[in-house]
Amino acid sequence: MNKENIRNLSFYCIYTRNHSESGTLQGVIDDLPRIARMGIDFIWLLPINPIGLTNRKGTLGSPYSINNFREINPEHGNLDDFRHLVSEIHRQGMRLMLDIVFRHTSHDCPWVKQHPEWYLRDDKGNPIAIVSEWTDILDLKFD
């Protein structure tokens, strides 16, 4: 893939929770033939990781308030379901792009206690989010 032809590729964005009635990775798999028939090149999958509970926004939480970057949200399925999804996407002639934001975590991400030095802090030493409305996340620092 080069810069000239990437502009001609089509992306289909999927938020697993809302994509199918089941809200699962299997629900996405079941819909792949239809998506492939539209000529889609990439499935762009919004975060599928477990969502933090502390300071959760609403009852379901934001998928960008990630508790663990190495796990699959059990509401969506498990690692085997994810592997099956990847396999089916490729079988249908498409590629997968995962939406992962490594800029912040949930308040109850284990890193908050294991690596407090990784987080931005206010004048009192409390971990913070840069955007004050994003009350469900804490920002990582990259210096």
From TrEMBL:
Coiled coil: none annotated. It comes from Rotaria sordida. This is Glycosyl hydrolase family 13 catalytic domain-containing protein. The lineage of its organism: Eukaryota, Metazoa, Spiralia, Gnathifera, Rotifera. It comes from the Eukaryota. GO terms for biological process: carbohydrate metabolic process. Residues 18-116 form the Glycosyl hydrolase family 13 catalytic domain. SUPFAM superfamilies: (Trans)glycosidases. It holds the Pfam family Alpha-amylase.
